[in-house]
Amino acid sequence: MASQDIVQQLEEHLETINQYKDVELISRPGRWGTITFKMAEQDIELAMSIAADLSSMPLSYLTDQAAQDIMRHIFNVSEYFKQIYEFKLEGTSKLHYEIAAHLERAVKGLSTATSDWIPYLAYKRGDFSESIQQIETAVKNAGALEDEAKRYAYASRAEVDEIVDAAREAAASAGVATFTSEFDAEAKILASGSKGWLWAIVVLAGATVGCAVLSFYWPSLPEDANGWITLRHVVAKVSVIAILFTGTVWCGRIYRALRHQRSINRHRALSLKTFQAFVKATDDPVTRDAVLTAATKSIFANVPTGFVEERVTGQDASVNVLDISRSASRGVPTGSGASPKE
What is d(CA 66, CA 141) in angstroms, rounded to the nearest whole number? Predict the structure, then answer.
């Protein structure tokens, strides 16, 4: 252990560094202008931190040699602190860089000399024991909180499941409502567009009939017309009527296609609304699954609307909801425990 005299001298040297704690050593615009010791800021903070730590520790546990070595490095650091404190602009322009470089070497020496002793002195001071006790207390508290969280989670599991189911149902209802509005909107657009093609059919059909009637009287053939002139008149009239008739048929097909698509989208919107009504009317998951299966096949199946020709290429895709519900309910045991008859 270090002698009392050496410990006292070490404490006095530490005080020479601690006294710069409230002194500005980085920059002084009023005295140094734009010159600063910013490059030595980390070294200054490290030296002050080491000095503050040593001042609060039982230095008597140091050996005489270690105490003298630390004292020597502290003296060097305090000397460079003094040079920075008393720095003036007179002299070479690189003087502050030289002071910062010397301070850096001195602080490294101080850090090396104290790196092995500070943990030992902190242990002797009792910091490690207190830290271990605090860690143990924190671990116990964390274990208690974990047990409480588990109990709360188990107790709230049913509530959480209900919330999740409700959230899923709300999301599903919102999705169904969104698609219902989309199908309704598309049906309205198609219905509005088909009206224009209906007017086109009326106009072209009227023009076709008018041209057919007009061509019977005008232009009339001259009395001395030969076969060639007659053929030209007939071909010209037939060509005009054929073009108008073809346009009428083409517009009619487009009108039928638009009305067909409008009916399909309207059918899908009504099917989704029906599905929502069935789902809200029951809490049985088997019935809901049956309704969902039937509604899905009904919504996306080929729907005969009468506007276009429908060809059935396979088995009928329609599904009987009652049949599905009955077959699904057969797998549900009765209250008496008797199995259903085959």
Answer: 41
The dihedral over CA atoms of 125, 129, 135, 139, expressed in degrees to the nearest 10, equals: -160
Separation of alpha carbons 55 and 114, rounded Å: 12
Please determine, for residue 158, whether its predicted confidence score (pLDDT) is greater than 90.
Answer: no
The identity of residue 283, as a single letter, is D
Torsion of Cα atoms, 37 then 40 then 41 then 42, to 10°: 170
Compute the distance between CA of residue 50 and CA of residue 46 in angstroms, rounded to an integer.
6
27, β-bridge pairs: 36
Please tell me the distance from the alpha carbon of residue 308 to that of residue 306, in angstroms, as a whole number. Answer: 6
Position 3 scores a pLDDT of: 79
pLDDT class for 235, splitting at 50, 70, 90? confident
- Angle ∠(115,121,123) on CA atoms, nearest 5: 110
CA gap 50, 73 in Å, rounded: 11
248 DSSP assignment: H
**Average pLDDT in the chain:** 75
Domain extents for the chain? 4-115, 162-329
> What pLDDT is recorded for position 100?
85
Q: What is the CA radius of gyration of the chain?
A: 49
Distances (CA, A) of 157 to 160, 168, 342: 5, 16, 40
Q: Which tokens sit at 166?
A: 């409700």
**Residues 237, 215: Cα–Cα separation, whole Å:** 6
Mapping DSSP to helix (H, G, I), strand (E, B) and coil, where does residue 242 land? helix
Residues 70/110, Cβ–Cβ less than 8 Å:
yes
> Quick check: 106 and 77 in contact, CB under 8 A?
yes
Residue by residue, DSSP assigns 70-118 as: HHHHHHHHHHHHHHHHT--S-S-TTHHHHHHHHHHHHHHHHHHHHTTHH
pLDDT digits (tens, 9 = 90+) for 67-125: 888 888 888 888 888 888 888 776 556 788 888 888 888 888 888 888 888 787 777 77
Q: What is the pLDDT of residue 249?
A: 92
- pLDDT tens-digit profile of 33-71? 778 888 888 888 888 888 888 888 787 878 888 888 888
